[in-house]
Amino acid sequence: AQSVTQPDIHITVSEGASLELRCNYSYGATPYLFWYVQSPGQGLQLLLKYFSGDTLVQGIKGFEAEFKRSQSSFNLRKPSVHWSDAAEYFCAVDVTGGGNKLTFGTGTQLKVEL
Amino acid sequence: GAVVSQHPSWVICKSGTSVKIECRSLDFQATTMFWYRQFPKQSLMLMATSNEGSKATYEQGVEKDKFLINHASLTLSTLTVTSAHPEDSSFYICSAPTSGSGTDTQYFGPGTRLTVL
User: Fold this and answer.
1) In this complex, is the C-beta atom of B46 within 8 Å of any C-beta atom belonging to chain A?
2) Is residue A102 within 8 angstroms of chain B, CB to CB?
């Protein structure tokens, strides 16, 4: 079965600093890959997704992610973090091809220091 | 973007009682919805797929008699936790897909916090 690993449970960065959240997946082929953000009281919001093509994907709120097949990774990056980015971030995969049956990682809690 | 709501946002009940959680797609129709469960500090686990007009599909290990799902309309799915016990306390989240770019985009509800005493 597929699995998703987010090795960092908590990350703290200073406002304005760059950010990279790691995500590795275990699956024989290339799954559909997603990054979601979860803020208290709000539903998970899709930041970006990768299905095929260009391995560098641009998302909302200034986020981007790069798919690296050789490393089975899909790391999320942002060049300059804002205090409002503090939230929990989930990487997810879907191997069914429809974008529906998601397997989530355990999440990374991001704290932003002012 | 599309909006999915859940009601209630939190509920406390006594052990042995049943609790119903609603999931609504507010501005789009969804023939399929998904129910997830999230334990504190853990990931979301897919519980079941709710299908409008037909039986739900449950993931392995999820008791279908414990978690009753009804998808009576194109905008509403309900999850009923029957004879709830403290171990059922969790955060329940629903999602509904819309189609776009050749594959579905999931929109998630804000979740329902269930506490069973």
Assistant:
1) yes
2) yes
